[in-house]
Amino acid sequence: DKVLMELIEPYELRAAKLREFLEDVKPSLRYDIVPLVDPYGPSVTDPDLQCLVVSEETRRGGEAVNKKRLENGLPELVLYEILLMKDPDHSQNEEEKISSSSLRQRLLGTLLRPPRQDPALPLRPYVIGLTGGTGSGKTSIAKLLGHLGAFLIDADKLGHAAYVPGGPAYKQVVAAFGAEILNEDGTINRKVLGAKVFGNQERLKSLTDIVWPEMARMVKEQIGEADAQG
């Protein structure tokens, strides 16, 4: 259940940072940094270990280690509990302690590598597509990109614009689904239209075959407008 697993640093880099930290604290000691390939590592098999440093949140793990050691005929380790340092600058969505999970959260929005150059694509405008389910954060990310100077194209708004009287898909949709989808003022009642296509793949495809090409054309027009604005 680690947050943003894809942004966890490689083992070699984490081990190097750990060694640098330990040697800063006490360079006179010898440090063996061991990669863990299971939840316990050498803690349940090494007879020379005497102490295990835990925190309040990892104490139960230390107790599990001691249980395994006893099963393996080894003496229990002394569990030495330390306090975790608080992060005075943590945000509402981050852990209260100093945490690599919080650091990964802060990496969001950072360009990790240069955009891949595709010779088949023009150099500009550079188009980013935001997709995701309801509540996934599309609007929030779009606002952030807008603050950074991006030209925003809202596909939902374009979809609505395609349906309005005089819109590019209006006549085709009314012809395909009948006048019963219209309100008294001639606008398309999207609830009535939705009821006609909901759960009916054939009707849904009929609708998207009309609306999506028009939306794509409108998107291309807006991309051209963005390019003209620089």
UniProtKB/TrEMBL annotation:
CDD domains: DPCK. It comes from Podilymbus podiceps (Pied-billed grebe). Pfam families: CoaE. This is COASY synthase. NCBIfam families: dephospho-CoA kinase. The keyword tRNA-binding does not apply. InterPro entries: Depp_CoAkinase, P-loop_NTPase, Rossmann-like_a/b/a_fold. Keywords: ATP-binding, Nucleotide-binding. GO terms for molecular function: ATP binding; dephospho-CoA kinase activity. GO terms for biological process: coenzyme A biosynthetic process.
